[in-house]
Design brief:
alpha+beta; Alpha-Beta Plaits; four-stranded antiparallel beta sheet; 3 helices; 25% strand; DUF3579; DUF3579 domain-containing protein
Length: 109
């Protein structure tokens, strides 16, 4: 169960019994379905980029989708769709926070 205070959830491409979830592009497909749900709503061309609230990524070699709580606040049914996708496919879900990479320091001359 996902706590009501979770800031982000990570839907991982690993089933609860440890198998890799297929198809291999599942994360991009799920995030693509969610592309219209974004701050300010959909706009012409928004279908060409992922929503900042639902981002596919790879973490330690495992495909994941990071779903931000802002999606739940703005569109509860879209949040439920993502959570139910994970549950229906028996995928592992973790509550976490995506930390941006540290900036790369400039090279010294």
């Amino acid at each position: 169960m996902i706590s009501p205070t979770a800031k982000e959830i990570f839907i991982q491409g690993i089933t609860k019994d440890g198998r890799t979830f297929r198809p291999s592009d599942w994360a991009e497909r799920l995030a693509g379905v969610m592309c219209s749900f974004r701050p300010g709503g959909a706009y012409p061309g928004s279908h060409l980029s992922y929503s900042p609230w639902c981002i596919p990524t790879t973490i330690n070699g495992v495909k994941c989708v990071v779903v931000n709580r802002a999606l739940r606040d703005a569109e509860p049914m879209a949040w439920d769709f993502c959570v139910n996708f994970a549950r229906d496919n028996d995928l592992q879900v973790a509550e976490a926070c995506l930390v941006p990479d540290a900036p790369i320091p400039p090279k010294k001359a």
